[in-house]
Design brief:
The chain has about 150 residues and is of the alpha+beta class. The protein has 2 domains: about 55 residues; about 80 residues, Glutaredoxin (3-Layer(aba) Sandwich). Strands 2-3-1-4-5 form a 5-stranded mixed β-sheet, covered by helices on one side. A hairpin with a 2-residue loop joins strand 4 and strand 5. Helix 1 runs antiparallel to helix 2 and helix 3 packs across helix 4. The chain is elongated and about 50 Å long. Bound molecules: FE2/S2 (inorganic) cluster. FE2/S2 (inorganic) cluster (FES) binds next to helix 5. The site of FE2/S2 (inorganic) cluster has 12 residues, from helix 5.
């Protein structure tokens, strides 16, 4: 982790790329790294924590084998994203930001996937899908978890 910090320390606004690099390396940003990063960059722990909590992409524990991200921004909300989120919670048995106990799947929210005209938009394992309803979401999840 200190090597990751050293590699990005001189970048402008180094905190964000450092946190991304840590997550890329470790699969998550464990809360234990907060004081180390703060010390290395000479910023407060609150500042590091603030960045981690502001950006929904950061995880405090590794994601499941499949990651489902549902867009909850305005355009997708207007065409049923909230109902889709409710369905996903029931179907997967996890809340937003959580990973299933068996680590099979993580459910996340995202605020715009750049696919606003084709909402509700969903990303499954990094692949973007538009006009997703409950039935299609089930099919996408089934396909992903059996891959
Ligand atoms: S609002 Fe959902 S993709 Fe933009």
């Amino acid at each position: 982790m200190r090597a990751v910090v050293a590699a990005h320390r001189d970048e402008r606004g180094a905190l964000l790329p450092i946190l991304h690099a840590i997550q890329d390396e470790l699969g998550c940003v464990d809360p234990a790294v907060v004081p180390v990063v703060a010390e290395e960059l000479n910023v407060s722990r609150a500042e590091v924590h603030g960045v981690l909590s502001f950006y929904h992409d950061f995880r405090s524990e590794p994601a499941g084998r499949t990651t489902v991200r549902i867009c909850r921004a305005e355009a997708c909300q207007s065409v049923g994203a909230e109902a889709l989120v409710a369905h996903a919670r029931d179907r997967l048995g996890v809340s937003l930001g959580e990973t299933a106990f068996d680590r099979s799947v993580s459910l996340d929210q995202v605020f715009c996937l750049g696919n606003c005209a084709l909402g509700p938009s969903v990303q499954v394992d990094g692949r973007l899908y538009g006009r997703v309803d409950a039935e299609r979401l089930d099919a996408l999840v089934d396909e992903a978890v059996t891959r």
